UniProtKB/TrEMBL annotation, chain A:
Domain DUF4130 residue range list: 82-250
Database matches in NCBIfam families: SAM_7_link_chp (TIGR03915)
InterPro entries xref list: DNA_repair_put, DUF4130
Stated name of the protein: DUF4130 domain-containing protein
Short name of any one Pfam family annotated for the protein: DUF4130
Automatic annotation (TrEMBL), chain B:
Segments forming domain Radical SAM core: 50-288
Pfam families given in the database record: Radical_SAM
MF-aspect GO terms: catalytic activity; iron-sulfur cluster binding; metal ion binding
Lineage of origin: Bacteria, Pseudomonadati, Bacteroidota, Saprospiria, Saprospirales
Matches recorded under PANTHER family: ENDONUCLEASE/EXONUCLEASE/PHOSPHATASE FAMILY DOMAIN-CONTAINING PROTEIN 1 (PTHR21180), TYPE II SECRETION SYSTEM PROTEIN K (PTHR21180:SF9)
Record key words, sorted: Iron, Iron-sulfur, Metal-binding, S-adenosyl-L-methionine
Keyword Hydrolase among record annotations: no
InterPro entries named in the record: Aldolase_TIM, DNA_rSAM_put, Endo/Exo/Phosphatase_dom_1, rSAM, rSAM_sf, RuvA_2-like
CDD domains: Radical_SAM
Secretion signal span: none
Metal-binding in keyword set: yes
Cofactor(s) annotated in UniProt: [4Fe-4S] cluster
Organism: Flavilitoribacter nigricans (strain ATCC 23147 / DSM 23189 / NBRC 102662 / NCIMB 1420 / SS-2)
Name of this protein: Putative DNA modification/repair radical SAM protein
């Protein structure tokens, strides 16, 4: 049986809850938006219910740990095909297991989820590192990113804690949405198509006067702090793969 | 920001770059509602230099004017270079604005000695104080503790900085005397010892009173230059170990000596000893995270680290009686000693064992580097006894299996 859900984490947890409730094992769980239809089956569409989602979530926390539950959320945002079934399988096994199923590195599902989670962790860490804000005339600190996975919701917390007294916007130009923080709260925003932002294409006219000076100073710093006698481009590229260069003012 | 500031930045970043530490880890400093920045414990490298080093902090000297003439230092008074000095406000402004743009985790501020120790230290402290109090800056601050500065100034420094460091630089006092006649170990160890007691004192206090102030919460570090003077690895690691044990240092950094044009008190090297430096870091990790003792890594009989292979592998080959290790039975400490098994893999092995017997494929998926590890372990479905357990054979197999090693071996022929 194929289950369709709305693509969100609570949606997926609701779908899992429903499969338990009606005692039916899904063969696939697919976001509604990705469903292409089928001649041979009528999928089950499960609506998102926050009380259901919460019960599954709390159950996973209890059976594994907060970290185990968090892993599922992070993995869902990896946009890997079929990650839903891995999550479903993990929840099912966790409920049966007496010990924390997330520690079971003998199990293929656990191993695959861990691998995905590790990739997510790396991408999150890179975004913490490589986001570069530019200050605009209206005092918004402004950054465009193009992460490999949908990590924007996972990095907000870090920037809220770090820059609580600064208005900022981080925009994912691949997925066309951003997170705007106004020194009170963060909200997801989207721009009309014509206003889609691109990396490094913020026009100089909207930038604060001193902005380019600081960018230049940072470039100079980057060059001066290098030790040519130690040059090791292989190591350099390992740490800063080329696809991230587009973020970096200093590159 | 004017052109002048940018020029100063170029000069004073260039002069500071030989201090290899750039870590922003080990401190937990919460932000406030209206403040700027925080430290979460694990540092972030915001970029990497072309030599592959992490750039986490704005690392600069306040000035490269210096009254001393240490042979190993670019800023030494006899060296004919451009000199510059930042104002307090310039440093504050650069730090705040770089931080706001997410370029850095904070500031690493060192300085040449102008006038005297107190005069210099006072300015370093003033910058940190201004950042903390006027700008509510809660990012990372690493200050150099200037040997000879008053205890009052060191006390103040600790209240604003996350980490303090005094560099030992030369790994023996005899050599130090030769290259920096005005310096001695006592002057370096004194502030280190003083700060150690202060850090400990404040830590105790915080256990009692939660609101007690932080005092250099990321502790102290130091740097040792290797290759400029004749000390062997045994000597260097013994010194590092005593610094960890007796001075409670958080980190010792090793800096392969980069030949700085011509001071005749120092040898002429063609290239910095980067492989040796790397091996020292590996050995340092074994001391700090793998439960190794110095004499297990280097000894009078083997006073130098093996440049061809990492120290853990070298240890395993010197101790054939301890291997192979059965990953399904051995305790954590022993699993950690298998070459190719890191801390994370070792922990996973211990956790996974509760669910059943580990087989070869599991080890692979857990992340064990089997190319190296297989000689040294036994798992449920495989041992590698047929590969033979002759240290020399393993050694040559490992060296030849890895093209990186092959190159290193070739180089060392010349
Ligand atoms: S005192 Fe410090 S800055 Fe001055 S020459 Fe010696 S090492 Fe360099």
């Amino acid at each position: 049986m194929t289950i369709l859900y709305n693509g969100t984490y609570p949606g997926l947890l609701s779908a899992i809850f429903e499969s338990y409730r009606i005692k039916a094992r899904p063969t696939r769980i697919v976001p509604e938006a990705d469903w292409r239809g089928s001649l041979f089956e009528e999928p089950l569409v499960v609506a998102t219910r926050s009380d259901w989602a919460e019960r599954v979530r709390a159950g996973v926390v209890k059976k594994t740990s907060k970290k185990g539950e968090r892993m599922l959320y992070r993995c869902l945002l990896s946009e890997q095909p079929d990650v839903e079934m891995l999550i479903y399988d993990f929840v099912r096994q966790s409920m049966k297991s007496k010990t924390n199923w997330a520690d079971n590195y003998l199990d293929d599902t656990v191993l695959r989820l861990q691998q995905i989670d590790k990739k997510m962790g790396r991408e999150i860490h890179r975004m913490h590192a490589f986001v570069r804000f530019q200050q605009t005339r209206d005092d918004i600190y402004y950054a465009v990113i193009e992460p490999d996975f949908d990590v924007l919701p996972l990095i907000i917390d870090h920037f809220e804690k770090r820059y609580p007294a600064q208005t900022w916007l981080i925009y994912d130009s691949r997925r066309h949405y951003g997170m705007f923080y106004d020194q009170q709260r963060t909200e997801a925003i989207t721009f009309a198509e014509k206003d889609h932002l691109n990396l490094r294409q913020i026009s100089a006219s909207i930038l604060e006067e001193g902005e380019t000076d600081y960018q230049e100073a940072w470039q100079k710093y980057f060059t001066s702090t290098n030790i040519p006698e130690r040059k090791n481009m292989k190591l350099h590229l390992q740490h800063v793969p080329r696809r991230y260069w587009k973020y970096l003012v200093e590159k | 920001m004017n052109q002048k500031t940018q020029e100063k930045l170029e000069i004073l970043a260039d002069a500071a770059k030989y201090d290899v530490s750039c870590s922003s880890s080990g401190s937990k400093r919460k932000n406030t509602r209206t403040g700027l920045g925080n430290s979460t414990g694990s540092g972030i490298c915001h970029t990497y230099t072309e030599d592959g080093r992490c750039v986490s902090l704005l690392k600069i000297l306040l000035t490269n004017f210096c009254i001393y003439d240490c042979a190993y230092c670019v800023s030494r008074s006899s060296n004919d270079i451009k000199r510059a000095a930042f104002t307090v406000d310039e440093v504050v402004d650069l730090t705040i604005n770089f931080y706001r743009r997410n370029y850095i985790e904070g500031l690493f501020l060192s300085s040449g000695i102008f006038k005297n120790a107190d005069y210099t230290m006072e300015r370093l402290v003033r910058i940190a104080k201004k950042l903390r109090l006027e700008h509510q800056f809660n990012g990372y601050i690493h200050l150099k503790a200037i040997p000879g500065a008053s205890e009052e100034l060191l006390d103040e420094a600790g209240l604003y900085a996350d980490r303090l460091s005094v560099n030992i630089e030369i790994p023996s006092e005899m050599s130090l005397k030769k290259v920096a006649p005005e310096k001695n170990y006592k002057d370096v160890l004194e502030p280190m010892g003083y700060l150690k007691t202060r850090i400990k004192g404040y830590k105790e206090e915080r256990k009692q009173i939660k609101k007690a102030p932080l005092f250099a919460p990321a502790g102290q570090s130091t740097q040792l230059v290797v290759g400029a003077t004749p000390e062997n690895d045994l000597k260097v690691l013994q010194l590092a170990d005593s610094l960890y044990q007796q001075q409670s240092l958080k980190r010792v950094y090793y800096s392969g000596y980069i030949p700085i044009p011509t001071d005749n008190r120092l040898p002429v090297l063609k290239a910095p000893p980067l492989v040796r430096e790397n091996r020292l870091y590996q050995a340092d990790w074994l001391l700090r995270f793998y439960g190794f003792k110095v004499d297990e890594i280097v000894s009078e009989a083997f006073p130098e680290l093996d440049l061809e292979m990492d120290p853990k592998m070298a240890y395993a080959l010197r101790h054939p009686a301890l291997f192979p290790v059965d990953v399904n039975k051995a305790d954590y400490e022993m699993i950690l000693r298998i070459p190719g098994v890191g801390v994370k893999s070792a922990q996973k092995i211990i956790q996974a064992r509760r669910f059943g017997q580990l087989r070869f494929e599991h080890l692979k998926k857990i992340g064990v580097v089997l190319k190296r590890a297989r000689y040294f372990l036994v798992c449920a479905d495989k041992d590698f006894l047929h590969l033979g357990w002759d240290p020399d054979t393993i050694r040559s197999q490992i060296l030849h299996a890895d093209p990186k090693n092959r190159k290193a071996a070739q180089l060392s022929l010349f």
